[in-house]
């Protein structure tokens, strides 16, 4: 085997080793997650979207952080953000934020310029849950955390968050119109209505009440007074005539 061939193989093995080690080297700047970390922290931009990278000189580098779960019981009064440098030292990078709802994942607003905290080439951002005892913040035993690789004035979040490329599409709810239920109305025909179109007060043959079967009005009752009057007049006239004859006979 020639020296040239051996040298080429050695160079190829060296290049392959560098390529395999490149991902590890790229993330070597971010310190490992602390032993008391119980979940991955999400860094947020001003619009509330998850950040995967940013600038250490930006004002701010990020606008908040969201925990994946609520704070533990007894430590849900407030929360704050800190940074763990590569040498293990820590620094607080946000104000203490009161938590409005202990049942919701903790969220802290912040506006840090990361370059102001001398984080070197990597750091771990933590969210501490706090119990306020006499106004003094007491941190919980656990934290939520995420790593930062810092290089050339930029940072990359590690592990990389699952950042959606577009907002999810939610179909609007559909509503089915209600089917009207038919109702049965009671009959409005009166029970005493005539069955053959006969007006009330008429008989079966369409004759007004008080008439006979032959369609003639009963006039007997109305004619009796007239007949009685005529009889009286006739009797009076007859009596007067007889009285005059008697008077004439006496004179003769």
Q: Tell me the helix content.
A: 10-25%
Strand tally: 11
The residue-averaged pLDDT reads 74
Q: Which sheet architecture does the biggest sheet show?
A: 8 strands, mixed
Order of helices and strands: HEEEEEEEEEEEH
Oligomeric state as shown: single chain
* Poorly predicted ranges: 11-27, 165-175, 193-219
Q: Shape from CA axes? A: rod-shaped
- Number of H/I helices: 2
Radius of gyration: 57 Å
Distance between the termini: 205 Å
Structural class: alpha+beta
Strand content bin: 15-25%
Verbal overview:
The chain has 2 helices and 11 strands. Helices cover 22% and strands 25% of the residues. The strands form 2 sheets. Strands 1, 3, 5, 6, 7, 9, 10 and 11 form an 8-stranded mixed β-sheet that branches. The protein has a 3-stranded antiparallel β-sheet with strand order 2-4-8, with no helix packed on it. With 252 residues, the chain is α+β, with helices and mostly antiparallel strands. The longest helix has 32 residues, at 220-251.
Fold blueprint:
Elements: H1 3-26, E1 37-40, E2 42-44, E3 53-55, E4 64-66, E5 78-85, E6 90-92, E7 97-98, E8 107-109, E9 122-133, E10 136-151, E11 154-158, H2 220-251
Parallel strand pairs: 1-10
Antiparallel strand pairs: 2-4, 3-11, 4-8, 5-6, 5-7, 5-9, 9-10, 10-11
